[in-house]
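ok, trying the design again with the full structure, not the truncated one.
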């Protein structure tokens, strides 16, 4: 099992990435969400300059934030700083879209975008459509052999993030790897979708390298999973479920939890309405309040929505329990656990706690 560190992108994240590299983490992941965190490529550049072995990837970059040639140039620039250890993970957009009051990126366009970026990074010409004029023009990264600008000589894998069946098919059609939320048995149904899509595209049907994104906390002996410390470390990851419920029932996303738990969605809607009213904020943009603290911290009063079953699904437990959960994830096809820490202090703690576990399992 490989282990990666994911922290909500902040510009000095390189400090924790250096420590993660020293502790045996194989990857560091940088989320891309323009209204809530630092720019992922700026943070990656700083980390690239200060590390030598750890792989650096977006998790995930959102198509509507940058046109395909901008994304290709950005990741190829990081690959200039960190040759051969750069990964571009793409997704249809959660907070990168929802904080704008927009739904996720359409899957058909997502596949086209991923293919265009892949082709550009392979040095090919693509037919690009300008979103202002609608004009179609042929473009390429013009200076692949120039020593100073970017690096597409060292292969840059493109991973596809997906949780639903249509986006999962894009993994097989275009992707070099697969990123998904959690580590559970639903993967048993995902891999056949990927295999069928790969076969239809004339690509290898071998199972892709699979990354499971999850919360994490190493518990102390005798500690309860609902302890204040664990909720502080992982509660904001668990709260994403409630954000998704709200988006599915009340927001602009039309997410994949519509109808799953309408009572819980209604309770959260009442909570977030009260939260906004108490702060004098307009009620026509509640999505901004919903995603305040997303993957970063719990809002005042939000801890009441954190349930044990959400925490049980994460990589939370004593060292032996974490090893057992890692082995179960591996049995379901996960090759890599991207472990989330919510802030610099939590990242440092997680790195220290995971180092002996990584030494035992790799």
């Amino acid at each position: 099992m490989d282990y990666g560190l994911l922290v909500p992108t902040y510009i000095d994240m390189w400090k924790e990435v250096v420590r993660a590299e020293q502790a045996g983490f194989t990857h560091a992941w940088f989320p891309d969400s323009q209204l809530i965190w630092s720019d992922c490529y700026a943070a990656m550049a700083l980390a690239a300059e200060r590390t030598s072995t750890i792989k650096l990837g977006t998790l995930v970059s959102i198509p509507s934030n940058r046109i395909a040639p901008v994304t290709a140039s950005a990741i190829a620039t990081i690959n200039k700083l960190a040759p051969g250890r750069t990964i571009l993970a793409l997704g249809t957009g959660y907070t990168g879209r929802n904080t704008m009051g927009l739904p996720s990126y359409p899957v058909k366009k997502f596949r086209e975008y991923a293919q265009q970026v892949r082709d550009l990074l392979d040095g090919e010409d693509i037919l690009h459509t300008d979103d202002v004029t609608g004009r179609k023009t042929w473009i390429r990264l013009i200076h692949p052999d120039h020593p100073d600008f970017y690096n597409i000589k060292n292969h840059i894998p493109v991973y596809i993030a997906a949780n639903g069946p249509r986006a999962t098919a894009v993994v097989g059609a275009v992707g070099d790897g697969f990123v998904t939320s959690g580590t559970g048995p639903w993967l048993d149904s995902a891999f056949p979708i990927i295999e069928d899509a790969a076969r239809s595209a004339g690509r290898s049907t071998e199972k892709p390298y699979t990354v499971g994104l999850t919360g994490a906390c190493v518990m102390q002996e005798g500690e309860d999973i609902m302890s204040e410390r664990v909720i502080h470390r992982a509660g904001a990851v668990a709260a994403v479920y409630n954000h998704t419920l709200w988006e599915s029932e009340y927001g602009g996303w039309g997410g994949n939890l519509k109808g799953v738990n309408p009572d819980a969605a209604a309770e959260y809607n009442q909570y977030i309405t009260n939260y906004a009213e108490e702060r004098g904020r307009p009620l026509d943009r509640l999505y901004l309040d919903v995603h305040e603290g997303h993957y970063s911290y719990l809002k005042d009063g939000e801890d009441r929505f954190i349930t044990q079953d959400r925490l049980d699904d994460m990589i939370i437990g004593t060292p032996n329990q974490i090893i057992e959960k890692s082995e179960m994830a591996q049995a379901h096809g996960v090759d890599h656990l991207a472990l989330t820490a919510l802030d610099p202090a939590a990242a440092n703690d997680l790195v220290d706690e995971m180092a002996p576990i990584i030494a035992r399992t790799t």
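Keeping the full-length input from now on. The chain has one domain: 2-219+315-361.
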